Every structure is written in structure tokens, then in C-alpha cells.
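Exam revision sheet. Question 4 asks you to relate a sequence to its structure. Input first:
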Amino acid sequence: MATKAIVVGVALITLGVVVSLVSDSSSVTSLLPAMLGLIFVATGLIARSRPAISRHAMHLAAAVSLIAVVGSVGSAIGRGSTGWALFAQVVTAVLAAAFLQQAIVSFRDARRNREAVSN
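Answer key, C-alpha cells:
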């Protein structure tokens, strides 16, 4: 999961920077995907470098992905976004939802494996 967090993080950073540049936006909010991406990259790197706390780092990444999905979808609907803002919100929501789905599967499998070993 650490590698997936890093990959999603890099994708979100790229999305935030590209959308900010292409849309010629001076708003900090256009960089929100990049800020989320930094969190994903950080949690992925922590999970890789500190195996003892990797579970906690990946749970943090999963929580951030849930917040990203809810925030992006809520903002797209609530603000009636258009153009590049809508594109960034939809892509952020899709990437975060995909990561969240993979995290849930991974957590479930890890729990099953722990239970199988203890039995």
C-alpha cells in the first residue's frame, strides 16, 4: 500500500500543479490536490521507512482519501464548479476513491491473514 500511496500522491501533485498552470489560477485552492498529494507521498514514505508504524501511516492515508473524496464531490456539487476546477475535483475524487477502495481491501486481507496465523 505504501507504493500505491506514493503513486497516488505523485498523481495528485501533478494534477494540482498542471491545473494551476494551465488554468492560470492565482488561487491557492487550485493547489489543493497537490497538497493532498504531499500527504499521500509522506504517508507512503513513512510506511516504507518505518515498518513498525506502517499500518498507522496507511490508515492516515485512507482517512485523507475519504476526506478528499467527500470534499471534492461536495465542492463540485455545492459550488457548481466548471472547467478546470471541475476537472481537478473529479480526478481528485476518482484517485482518492480508488486508493480508499484498495486500502479497504488491503486492511481486510491483512486482518484475515492475522486471524489465520493466530488460529
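Marking note for examiners. Residues 15 and 33 are 7 Å apart (CA to CA).
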